[in-house]
Amino acid sequence: MKRLSTVLALIAFGLVTAGAQIRPLVPIVRPVLHEKTKVFILDLAESMAKDGYDDASDYLKAWAEGGFGSGFVIVEKDGRNLVITNRHVVAQAETATLEFEGGDGSTVTYKDCPVVGVSETLDIAIIGFPEGVKPFAKGLSIGSRLPEDGSDVLSAGFPGLLSRPSWQFGKGSVTNNKARIPELADPAETVLIQHSAPIDPGSSGGPLVVANPSAYGGYEVIGINTWKVNGRQDTNFAIPGTAMRAFIDQALKPSSVSPKEALASRVAAFVAAAAAPEDAYKGLDRFVSYDLVSRSGERYLKNALASAPTKVRDSIVEKFVGVSPVEGLRLAIAYGIAEALKAGPALRFDGAAAVTEGDGSSVVELARDGGSLQTRWIREHGYWRLETFPEPEAASAGDTKDKKGKEKKAGEKGVELVSPFDAGVSLGVTAETGSYGFKMGSLGLTLPLFDGSSFLAFRNDISVGAHSYESTDIYDPGEKTTLVISFLGSLVAQLPVRLGDLYIVPYVKPGVGFVMTTSLDIDLGGATTALAGGLYVTPPGWGWSLGAEYSRWSCTSMDALLDSGSGDTEKQTMNAVTVYATMSLFY
Q1: Mean pLDDT of the region 145-157
Q2: Does the model's pTM come out above 0.85?
Q3: Is the dihedral of CA 290, 291, 292, 298 positive or negative?
Q4: Of 61, 304, 453, 483, which one is least surrounded by beta carbons within 10 A?
């Protein structure tokens, strides 16, 4: 037992020693946001809270106060010092602060470190040191081989512990060395390394390494840790070293084309992406500048959350929370642009002749049948991106003017068609307006017939209540009160309208179903039909609604059907008014 303890102690000592060798080369990366960006994010948080998006508001506030990630140092052949991290760590930041911790608790900080390159297709970014600063003679080396499935790997970084970055160097194994996850990275560009080495918030951008005694620090980088799958144990993903190295070489390579030619090529790619037959917005977000996000992101985001199909809203929310709020806003703007363009003739780009260069930005004229669109482009992180884009008269484009051309601010009272929710359950109380003294409580479920649309829906109601029946020509039980259970399926046609901060939704719903009673004297079990109309009101966001409904029921008893023979039967009819509350399940 003593011998085993000694072996374990030696293993632990070896891991600590290895961590000490690599730790000086792994910094904490803190993005430095522009003050206007921070103000924008905090204003958006306040606005989202007013609209009922409390979780999103809290997340934005925390993000604006300054997040952090990890990175690792490489030294190029010319001696240039660089730090590699994830793109989402430095989103909407032009500079970053790099903090290097020593094993003794000391810290060396480098401020105003420029973001010198970002990949648009992979979650990778390059940070430089201030001009003339080269504190490292050697850095970590990036390997070109994929590790074998089952082989040992280690992750290094500074995940958060009690809201502060804390050094972590943990061991795991490769569970899939060629994972193909289109939602994370295009498999045509690169596979991903799936592994079980510990990854937590703050680890983003840290290196995934394997032991290599001949490499500086004793370890070789085989990937950059980027994603963690929530809800599944030890399922993490890293971008492999080959893809990293290819991007770094491309980003640092001097350009052989003029800025105007580069812009023309970029605009041509934008026009091609906009013409995609499906999900064009997913290819347009890379053209959205952070400057456009600051000025128009809130409007586009709210429009998308209010009216976009479910799968689009899910994609935006996943990026907003899983990557960063800024990337979620870029996707929301891309969706608005795609929808606006889809409503008109296809775009054409006449090449460099349509480009007018200016100081800091350039104007590009995009042609289309019946007119043209004037766009403005700026350079961000080494790429030309949209600084402004005209907003045609389309709700999905986030139009900011009313019909009279008056400027309309976000949140201002106005009318727009919306799809308020995807599904909902309701509880109601019904009182009959006729002579039968009908009292009933009901439970209903509403589901859309088409993805992302609340204009047509199917509704299923189960109702239980007490009903007093009078004598009829067909049967004469005397006045009787019995328990009634009804099942009704209805087609709901509704017109959701947003008026300021509320949705007002008028609707009609014809339905058919079945009614049965518990009375031994009255057999009312049989077919029933109903025609109802009503209106409900709900605020935006996940939550409640209140409604009222008038309905007319007609039910033919089984006894009446059997006794008449001819089919000329007497029907029980009922007029009812329902007041109900609804809780939406999915927004």
Answers
A1: 95
A2: no
A3: positive
A4: 483
